[in-house]
Write a structure and sequence with these properties.
Length: 323
């Protein structure tokens, strides 16, 4: 293998740049030419591909976002789109690809491998931490810290005004961010998509606090919760508890930005190098992950389809500590 390419795709995550830096520097260390693809699969289809040097990734280790930019490509979801994309790489003699992203990115990478035989190795870059085959995804730790910072501030004003706050965090269909921020932020309750918490459950939990004259409460809701958005949940609670002062904050995309934490910088560097070296060693259609501090490779199929359950010990702990 002489030429490889790298892209970032899907929702950006803090640490993607650190991962890219590791892929590029790792490729150069192994004597390969390395090409950056702009705007994920969209850029691949359009041939927005350029040769990267060591200096191309200087001073990006601590930068949020992705210098390669990202996109969610609609055209790449078609067979014709993928054929165009594969041709762009083939015509440049590119023999392997590292993709940095989440499940949508890996679904596309798997199809590229199956339909065009292009060896692909993924590095898990998503704040959601919803990929099987790695204890943590790149960006998850930073997103949790960002959310926590906001929750601490909301707690101050919630206390001052004796209010109930419903705070919605990201995570798509996963409750990982919600559980971590719930524990770190001392939430009274955490609502996650993986377990149904009814509105009556919410009220009875809050009632326990009100009975003890608890003046303020924080409920963290994951965006994919079965009862709906934080706005919807708060409206349902308000309908049953009209005398309560209820407010809603949706943290939104603030969770995706910012300089990556030390943990994410190190994780991203390890996973970027592991993805590149996996490709060099002949791995195909896998994701590099870290489990119990060791690099492991998991098939892309397993990474995107296997369940990554929440740690029930943590969920149990929230119930005990919030009382
Ligand atoms: O996958 C990362 C993520 O931030 C999810 O938590 C969220 O559901 C989604 O992306 C939002 O995507 P977009 O930025 O395209 O609206």
């Amino acid at each position: 293998m002489k030429k490889v390419a790298v892209l970032t795709s899907g929702g950006d995550a803090p640490g993607m740049n650190a991962c890219l830096r590791a892929v590029v520097r790792g490729a150069l260390y192994h004597g390969l030419e390395v090409y950056g693809i702009k705007r994920g699969y969209d850029g691949m289809i359009r041939g927005d591909i350029y040769k990267m040097k060591s200096y191309s990734v200087s001073n990006i280790l601590g930068q949020g976002g992705t210098i390669l930019k990202s996109a969610r490509s609609v055209e790449f979801r078609t067979k014709e789109g993928r054929a165009k994309a594969a041709e762009q790489l083939k015509s440049r003699g590119i023999e392997g690809l590292v993709v940095i992203g989440g499940d949508g990115t890996f679904t596309g990478a798997k199809l590229l491998y199956e339909e065009h035989g292009l060896p692909v190795v993924g590095a898990p870059g998503t704040i959601d931490n919803d990929l099987y085959g790695t204890d943590s995804t790149i960006g998850y730790d930073t997103a949790v810290n960002t959310a926590l910072d906001a929750i601490d501030k909301i707690r101050d004003t919630a206390n001052s005004h004796d209010r109930v706050f419903f705070i919605e965090v990201m995570g798509r269909d996963s409750g990982y961010i919600a559980v971590q921020t719930g524990i770190g932020g001392g939430a009274e309750l955490v609502m996650v998509p993986e377990t149904r918490t009814t509105i009556d459950n919410v009220i009875s939990t809050l009632q326990q606090g009100w009975d003890r004259e608890k003046s303020a409460s924080i409920v963290i809701t994951a965006e994919g919760d079965q009862e709906g958005s934080a706005q919807e949940i708060a409206a349902k609670v308000k309908a049953k508890c009209p005398d309560k002062d209820i407010k809603v904050t949706t943290l939104g995309h603030i969770q995706r930005g910012g300089s990556p934490s030390a943990y994410d910088r190190i994780l991203a560097s390890r996973l970027g190098l592991a993805a590149l070296e996996g490709l060099v060693a002949g791995k195909e259609c896998v994701m590099a992950g870290i489990i119990k501090n060791e690099v492991v490779y998991t098939s892309l199929e397993d990474a995107i389809t296997k369940d990554k359950p929440l740690n029930q010990d943590l969920v149990r702990m929230i119930n005990i500590l919030s009382v």
